[in-house]
Known about the structure:
Layout: H1 3-6, H2 13-29, H3 48-57, H4 70-79, H5 90-99, H6 101-106, H7 110-116, E1 120-121, E2 128-134, E3 138-140, E4 149-151, E5 154-160, E6 163-169, E7 172-180, E8 183-189, E9 194-200, E10 211-214, E11 219-224, E12 232-239, E13 247-249, H8 280-285
Antiparallel strand pairs: 1-2, 2-5, 3-4, 5-12, 6-11, 6-13, 7-10, 7-12, 8-9, 8-11
Helix pairs in contact: 2-4
InterPro entries: Cupin_DUF985, Kinase-like_dom_sf, Prot_kinase_dom, RmlC-like_jellyroll, RmlC_Cupin_sf, YML079W-like
Pfam family, one: Pkinase
Domain Protein kinase: 1-105
Amino acid sequence: xxxxxxxxxxxxxxxxxxxxxxxxxxxxxxxxxxxxxxxxxxxxxxxxxxxxxxxxxxxxxxxxxxxxxxxxxxxxxxxxxxxxxxxxxxxxxxxxxxxxxxxxxxxxxxxxxxxxxxxxxxxxxxxxxxxxxxxxxxxxxxxxxxxxxxxxxxxxxxxxxxxxxxxxxxxxxxxxxxxxxxxxxxxxxxxxxxxxxxxxxxxxxxxxxxxxxxxxxxxxxxxxxxxxxxxxxxxxxxxxxxxxxxxxxxxxxxxxxxxxxxxxxxxxxxxxxxxxxxxxxxxxxxxxxxxx
Length: 292
């Protein structure tokens, strides 16, 4: 029962939200709230009257398991706010569960996406990828290595699992969060060494962004934030379309001492992909393209 209802205030929807927070607590701890609340002086279980008094003052609140996921702690804490006006509305809860509950319960298994998209180990950057589309509309790319023209656009799924090695791509790449953990991206403009960091993920109220674009020619590395999930799935749109001749890894020797922490994103010496690097023709003809 919500504290304000115990005090005799009119029952509102906010009281139901509090009750929902109590249910979340029970799901987390597998215990009835306050069942282990003890009197500090006697060490005996609190009486019902004492529990009600502490609940109304805010001195006693339902708890959550220490290992509870961050979304459960945040949503539960808001639902159990002593101030009814600070509790989320039913609409807010619906939105929160879209961004918290579904990814945690349904999207935490990297193997599910690797199997069902399906995805291949990335031969250079670590993680996994699957090509989805390569435009047949061509554009000239004078001065670039490789073929004289490229498609206007290509798209892929890419899985950071759990680190993407720092590298460069000539093309601009737009990134869109899909599932799993939020991902921290670090980008560096090599001309000025200015560093940009952001988090691609679902929690906009925490400062995450749902999409961003990395300028062509910039260094880019990434890592998942939630190591209990240990992967983050994104979509990428590349323009001009991706070509292996347009990308290269950033070596530790390329990174100045002023940016030494970025070296942890460099590909380790001796690292090898689980599969042989695909040649460009196989990349273009892969069954993941939209022409299938």
